Amino acid sequence: MTDAAYLLVHEDREYLLEPGEEFGTDLGVIEVPEDVAAGDEVETHLGTVFEVRALRGPDLFNHLERTGAPMMPRDVGLVMGHTGASGGDRVLDAGTGTGILAAYLGRAGADVTSYEVDPEFAEVARANMATAGVADRVEVRTGDLTEELDALAEGEPFDALTLDTGDAPAVVERADELLAPGGRLAVYSPFVEGTREAALAAREAGFSEVETLETIQREMDFSDRGSRPSTAGVGHTGYLVFARAP
Length: 246
Description:
Elements: E1 6-10, E2 13-17, E3 22-25, E4 28-31, E5 41-43, E6 49-54, H1 57-63, H2 73-83, E7 90-94, H3 100-107, E8 111-116, H4 119-132, E9 138-142, H5 149-153, E10 158-163, H6 168-172, H7 175-178, E11 179-189, H8 192-204, E12 208-216, E13 220-222, E14 227-229, E15 236-244
Parallel strand pairs: 7-8, 7-10, 8-9, 10-11
Antiparallel strand pairs: 1-2, 1-6, 3-4, 5-6, 11-15, 12-15, 13-14
């Protein structure tokens, strides 16, 4: 993986910029050197100093170009933890969207083939993979995964299958043909109905360790009076189905 972009930070300001890029701000024009590296300092033409920092995983969620609601870091963390995707693994992904999950998988060292049905979304995702420095590990294909199942099933098996699509249950029905023995399945859905269908399809396909989780996260408030969970909301994002291939 190579760093294709860096964060330039000054106090509460941060900008995601690439080597050689010029960017105008009210603090002055930033000219990023071609040979910039993490730890360097870049000064605007008005004398404001920005610190150059390496791009980290959470920065992807904050700064990559969005084509809709991306998968939240809390959900990405569960997918990464339950699939165990790492260097050398082959991951088949569908529902690329902004590409947050695909980028995380690529930065973990996995080789990812990701399908996105919307051509414009796919183009943005490809640019995001370059920004994240994982274009050599993440291939974003324009198309519907369900139409490629026969061809993919005849090829080398994948170590993990990650789905964020409305037709995920149809893919899960054939997931055992796509995954290596013991390979991991992860399905994200914002709706209970699709989640139930995916879980049932996994069981019917002979998968083991099938479990379904609702992702809820609450922030904590600390004050002189005491500490308690925030009243801002329960922080629900979606549902995740995990399973292990036979």
